[in-house]
Structure formats: structure tokens, C-alpha cells
Amino acid sequence: MRKHVRRVTRVTPGTNDSPPAPPPPERVEAEITPPHGWRPGELLNIRNAGHCYVVTRWPAEYDPQQPQNAMIFDNPARCQDFVSRWYARQHHDPRAR
Predict the structure, then answer these.
(1) DSSP secondary structure, 58-85, as one string
(2) All residues at 6 or more sequence positions from 53 whose CB lies less than 8 Å from its CB, including other chains
(3) Is residue 59 part of a domain?
(4) 11, 18, 57, 60: which is deepest, by most CB within 10 A?
(5) pTM greater than 0.70 (yes/no)
(6) In the 8-state DSSP scheme, what is residue 40?
(7) Cα–Cα distance for residue pair 97/92, rounded to 1 Å
(8) Does any domain span residue 18?
């Protein structure tokens, strides 16, 4: 009676015949700059305007007559990213405890 032996071949990177996968594209995003006079870490007022998100300094509300005092985001992920970076620990004032 013969035993059936199965061969196992290990595949190491660079030994297969397929070309290497291209590196993922670098994520390039335009730097989002807040209006003049805004200081990182201060309170923001964020509103869903239906087709976009509007960010103003607390306690101000969005005024269509003065759009330079607000930031408008068409993409909710970009708005969330801005708010996360705005309240990042690097801007935390230790005196605020």
C-alpha cells in the first residue's frame, strides 16, 4: 500500500511571475484654511444646510450676506476631517482645565 504524499510549495514575495502591484496613489488634498481671525480649538457651530454643511464660529449662525465668515463643505467627510483637526490635542490649551 502506497502513501499519498502531497507537496507544499511556499511562495515568497518576488517569486511569482505576476508584476508587482503599483503603489497606492498619494492622497493629495487641498489645505483647508479657515477664515481670518479663527483660532484652532475655539468652539464651532456646525449646521446641516441640506445640500452642504456650514461651519461658523460659535455662537454665530450662517449669514448669506456674509459668506466670508463661514466655511461651506459639500462633502461631509471633509467637514468631519476639518472639525477633527480643528479640535486636535495639539491645539488644546492646558489652562482650560
Answers:
(1) TT----TT-GGGSEEESSHHHHHHHHHH
(2) 46, 47, 72, 73, 76, 79
(3) yes
(4) 57
(5) no
(6) T
(7) 10
(8) no
Report the number of distinct structural domains present in the chain: 1
- 14 — alpha (psi -120 to 50), left (phi > 0) or beta? left
- Please report, in tens digits, the pLDDT of each residue of the chain (97 residues total): 566 666 666 656 555 566 666 665 555 455 678 888 888 888 999 999 888 999 999 888 888 888 888 999 999 999 999 988 888 766 556 665 5
Which range of residues forms the domain containing residue 74? 44-92
Residue 41 class from Cβ within 10 Å (0-12 exposed, 13-18 middle, 19+ buried)?
A: middle
Write the burial class of residue 27 (CB in 10 Å: 0-12 exposed, 13-18 middle, 19+ buried).
exposed
Which residues 6+ apart lie within 8 Å of 59 measured at CB?
45
